[in-house]
Amino acid sequence: MLDNIRIVLVQTFHPGNIGQAARAMKTMGLTRLTLVNPRAFPDDEATRLAAGADDVVASARVVDSLEAAVSDCVQVIGASARLRSLPLPHYDEPDAMAGEVIEHASQGPVALVFGRERFGLTNDEIRHCTHQVSIPANPDYGVLNLSQAVQVLAYDVYRAWRRQQGRTAPQPGRGPLPDQAQLQHFHAHLERVMGASGFLNQPHARTSEHLHALFARAQPSRKELSLLRGLLSALESHLPESR
């Protein structure tokens, strides 16, 4: 199950932080590292500071965009300060996040996404996430190094996984969850129908963002998403633009 949990680092500037993050991961049983446009990689500094986790560094996947890094994931959690302008579901406590991560990882890949050292994730990058999580810290000095942030969340995930190993009864579910590529197709279909119907006629209302957050909270299964796509197709067939 831990193999289904990946750490995604976006545009890491210092290669040493990649090595230190790999070390933080490996101490908690995580080995899947994805790098989005790192400034310098491969790099000897990353390997040196991995301190025994050089296998995690060596097997890291490098991609050009966050979308490519998470398209197959059933859950994507962005580590950032709470952004109230983006109404995504938010975990105020990492341990609450960790329990759900373990549940989702039993169905497919899950990504924990960390942004740049100096200013984190952009709003556009957060929009590729299904959830946000913040790490409670001293309000007068809540500054964590990138690898420290990885260590905190990785620890909570590992602890939740250990608790899950003690369960004997299977947890009920609603069926497999869709990955992010399937959700993106759904949201594109929804926007197309809303636009053609005349419903989406006030861009300033941020209707699409609120609906995106609604479905992120609802977490429809693949079957439920298929039913929604079928409903949209039926509605679309009755619109003038679709005839």
Automatic annotation (TrEMBL):
GO molecular function, one term: methyltransferase activity
Pfam families linked to this entry: SpoU_methylase
The keyword tRNA processing belongs to this UniProt entry's keyword annotation: yes
Purpose of the protein: Catalyzes the formation of 2'O-methylated cytidine (Cm32) or 2'O-methylated uridine (Um32) at position 32 in tRNA.
Keywords: Cytoplasm, Methyltransferase, S-adenosyl-L-methionine, Transferase, tRNA processing
Subcellular location: Cytoplasm
Record text on subunit structure and interactions: Homodimer.
PANTHER family: TRNA (CYTIDINE_URIDINE-2'-O-)-METHYLTRANSFERASE TRMJ, TRNA/RRNA METHYLTRANSFERASE
EC number: 2.1.1.200
UniProt record, GO biological process: methylation
Family: Belongs to the class IV-like SAM-binding methyltransferase superfamily. RNA methyltransferase TrmH family.
Reaction(s) catalysed (UniProt annotation): cytidine(32) in tRNA + S-adenosyl-L-methionine = 2'-O-methylcytidine(32) in tRNA + S-adenosyl-L-homocysteine + H(+); uridine(32) in tRNA + S-adenosyl-L-methionine = 2'-O-methyluridine(32) in tRNA + S-adenosyl-L-homocysteine + H(+)
Domain (tRNA/rRNA methyltransferase SpoU type) ranges: 5-155
The protein, known as: tRNA (cytidine/uridine-2'-O-)-methyltransferase TrmJ
Top-level class of the enzyme under EC nomenclature: transferase
